Amino acid sequence: MKQVPKYKKIVHWTLEQLVSGSIIPGEKFSSENALCQQFNVSRQTVRRALEELENDGYITRIKGSGTYISKSPPHNSTQVNAKKRSSKSVGIITTYLDAYIFPSIMQAIERELSQEGYTVHVASTHNTVEGESRALQSMLGNTLDGLIVWPTKSGLPCMNLQYYAQIINKALPVIFVDSFYPELPGTYVAIDDVSVGRLATSHLIENGHTQILGIFPHGDRQGQLRYKGYCMALKEAGIPLIDTYVHWYSKEDVEEELSRKSLWQNIGGATAAFCFNDSLALMLMDQLDQRDISVPTAFSVIGVDNTVMGKRSGLTSIVHPSEELGYIVAHRLISMIEGNETQSVLFPPKLIQRKTVRQFPQNKS
């Protein structure tokens, strides 16, 4: 791998600090002496880094006063650089390629980009931080017009800010799918996850359930937002939140965690469950079946994504607008590549009623 010049390391570090909020627009920047000591480099190397940062508009040097972070750093300078791009290539970084709802979203994105003459380069992170690191480095090594990213473990601090800082430095248009990193500026297209949690939980409450299990992935920002909606629905109905009814799981060990005895001991008198997605809901239904707990007679279950397997199982679910979302992602990115400003998009949730939610018997009139 080609070695990064020493001055570039200072540039990338500066952008990473700016993106993460460790340094803010308008404040005084580190002195040349401080940077020399911090990076163990010569003054000439530091000055070259500062020159590049100044030319790109990230810092302002004032004679006799010092160096300052620009009050308006060029985070969204895609319009200035749009005309320089002509590769007609787009990178896509996804967590998974061939599982669950990802293929339908990917097909929609690739179809729309292909119709506009773009070639697509795809990489999968397998939902690991190191996988995302490799994918970002690979994409940075290509000549691209834009980048589409499914964030990896978006509920945790982003550990690849240095690569995103390089992307920002290159003014490469980026659009995030399904979630986003709070540390990073940018456009994203997703379903409104807070409203998803609120709608699903409200549906169970409307069917007489007051003791509702909520199961969410701890490393996923979507899970955190759906948990927020779950809590909002309970609060609006005057139902207290019971901590033991909220279960956080790891996506890598979800099946094992669902079978743990402690989980079933904690849910106590719960009569229904809001599951993060259909896959989880079907796993839970299997565990309920093994314990001779019938769905929906004794227990109601609701999922999210409206998958084929969910439909076949009669699962009540929230629709994920996969094809429409893919269409919007592709065309928003093309608009950004052409130098236009774009806004994030949140799809409102829609619930499909099937057979897995039933009026709680004790609340029948």
Structure in a nutshell:
This protein has 365 residues and is of the alpha/beta class. Helix content is 41%, strand content 17%.
Report on the architecture of this protein:
- With 365 residues, the chain is of the alpha/beta class.
- Helices cover 41% and strands 17% of the residues.
- The chain is built from 14 helices and 14 strands.
- It has a 6-stranded parallel sheet, sandwiched between helices. Strands 9-8-10-11-12-14 form a 6-stranded mixed sheet, sandwiched between helices.
- Helix 5 runs parallel beside helix 14.
- The radius of gyration is 24 Å and the shape is elongated.
Task: Enumerate the spans where pLDDT stays under 50 for 5 or more consecutive residues.
Answer: 76-84
Helix and strand content put the structural class at alpha/beta
CATH C-level name of the largest domain: Alpha Beta
| Molecular shape | elongated
Key traits:
6-stranded mixed sheet; Rossmann fold; elongated; 6-stranded parallel sheet; 365 residues
Question: How do the strands and helices of this protein lay out in sequence?
Answer:
Blueprint: H1 6-20, H2 32-39, H3 43-55, E1 59-62, E2 66-69, H4 78-81, E3 89-94, H5 102-115, E4 119-124, H6 129-140, E5 146-149, H7 161-169, E6 174-177, E7 187-191, H8 193-206, E8 212-217, H9 221-236, E9 246-249, H10 254-258, H11 261-266, E10 272-275, H12 278-290, E11 300-305, H13 308-312, E12 316-319, H14 322-337, E13 345-347, E14 351-352
Parallel strand pairs: 3-4, 3-5, 5-6, 6-7, 7-13, 8-9, 8-10, 10-11, 11-12
Antiparallel strand pairs: 1-2, 12-14
